[in-house]
Design goal:
By secondary structure, this protein is of the alpha+beta class. The protein has 11 helices and 20 strands. α3 packs antiparallel against α4 (101-107). The longest helix has 18 residues, at 228-245.
């Protein structure tokens, strides 16, 4: 047998977290010849529906994390809010967990993440530690500012934009950091994958538009509207960031392009990312397969853009809770170039990510126009009401 001969399954993959990212990762893993086990507290989780097996258990349960890691060849994750202490212990015992639990422990704490970026010389907004938030401490730092909870924030939760003293009623109560508000021309994301051999591949930068007042990604346009020089600068910054962190796998690097033309790293996610869903249809190698290639020690794939694209998040309508009701699916699918992904979540909640739509067209503007048509046609709400 040669070194490039693999017995089936190629690997027994464990995924901590059973949400939509895990669901799409499992689909990619099956294409590559892997079997998958999911750990998630919700029976029949989105990822568990398509995996070979799901362990029902909490993401901070040491016994369940051990059960997953000990029955899989490689363990990865689709969420940051997990017990890293147990994962570090399992890694010391010889279990393969990628990206490394030590890196995850840094990234899941927003303050430690910012300090790591600063120490590596990665440009980012000025910040201070706010261990015990008070109006006086935030006012002394100066407005406008962005307050971020050190741990647990996602999809707009744990983030407060305070433009002046009148906004202090929205101050977050727990340990946090205060960042200088960046007057930016646009928000950009770059996916960067790093293999164990230090090969790094970046995807075309994308423009991100966030829902007003909620800090949830609403619309994404690929490629970003950047000059060739700006695109090179964004990709180079993503490479520097991932190399400085020393991670293996795919990373979502969110950036601001400020009004002076500088890129500043906002946050880094050590996993597949909402800003990369469009790659399933629009790139040679999608982000989920790329992540798996990296964590399994396989060569990284090409990241070439096949088509301009727009990606629209399908968020639960504020008017209903409960079993999802999908309205306008046929109308959306009748629009040429539309690809609908429904995540299989058992219940719709206001602003919850229930799916996404990717639209392909000859230009990003044409794709954007069609995405706006989808927004009007396709909604997801719940049978019940608050």
């Amino acid at each position: 047998m040669t070194t490039d001969t693999h017995a089936y399954p190629i690997a027994r993959l464990g995924v901590i977290g059973g949400g939509q990212l895990g669901r799409m990762m499992v689909k990619a893993a099956r294409r590559l010849g892997c079997t998958c086990t999911i750990l998630d507290p919700a029976p029949g989780s989105p990822a568990g529906q398509v995996a070979a097996h799901q362990i029902v258990g909490g993401l901070h349960d040491p016994a369940k994390l051990r059960e997953l890691a000990e029955t899989c060849d490689v363990t990865t994750y689709d969420i940051e809010d997990i017990d890293t202490a147990t994962l570090v212990e399992l890694e010391r015992e010889g279990r393969r967990i990628v990206p490394s639990p030590a890196l995850l422990a840094v990234i899941q704490d927003k303050l430690l993440q910012k300090q790591a970026l600063l120490e590596a010389g990665i440009p980012t907004a000025d910040f201070i530690d706010v261990p015990a938030p008070s109006p006086e401490a935030l006012a002394a730092f100066g407005f406008p500012l962005v307050q971020k909870a050190r741990r647990g924030g996602y999809d707009g939760r744990g983030v407060a934009v305070l433009r002046g003293p009148r906004d202090l009623g929205r101050m977050l109560p727990g340990p946090s950091l205060a960042e200088r508000f960046v007057e930016h021309a646009r928000e950009v994301a770059v996916l960067a994958a790093r293999g164990a051999d230090d090969d790094i591949r970046t995807y075309p930068p994308v423009d991100m538009v966030f829902r007003e007042g909620e800090n949830v990604l609403d619309l994404l346009l690929a490629p970003a509207d950047l000059s060739p020089e700006q695109e090179t600068a964004a990709r180079d910054l993503a490479v520097r960031t991932v190399r400085a962190l020393g991670g293996v796998g795919i990373f979502g690097v969110e950036m601001f392009l400020d009004r002076s033309g500088r890129f500043l790293v906002n946050e880094v996610a050590p996993r597949t990312h909402n800003s990369g869903h469009w790659t399933i249809e629009a790139c040679v190698t999608d982000q989920f397969e790329q992540h798996l290639r990296a964590v399994l020690g396989l060569p990284l794939g090409a990241t070439d853009l096949l088509s301009p694209a727009a990606m629209l998040n399908l968020l639960g309508d504020p008017s209903g809770h409960g079993r999802p009701l999908i309205r306008g699916l046929a109308a959306a699918l009748a629009i040429p170039g539309v690809c609908v992904h429904i995540y299989g979540k058992a219940a719709s909640q206001p602003h919850r990510k229930m799916g996404h739509v990717t639209v392909l067209d000859s230009s990003r503007e044409a794709a954007r126009i069609k995405a706006e048509q989808v927004r009007k046609a396709l909604t997801i709400t719940g049978e019940g009401h608050p």
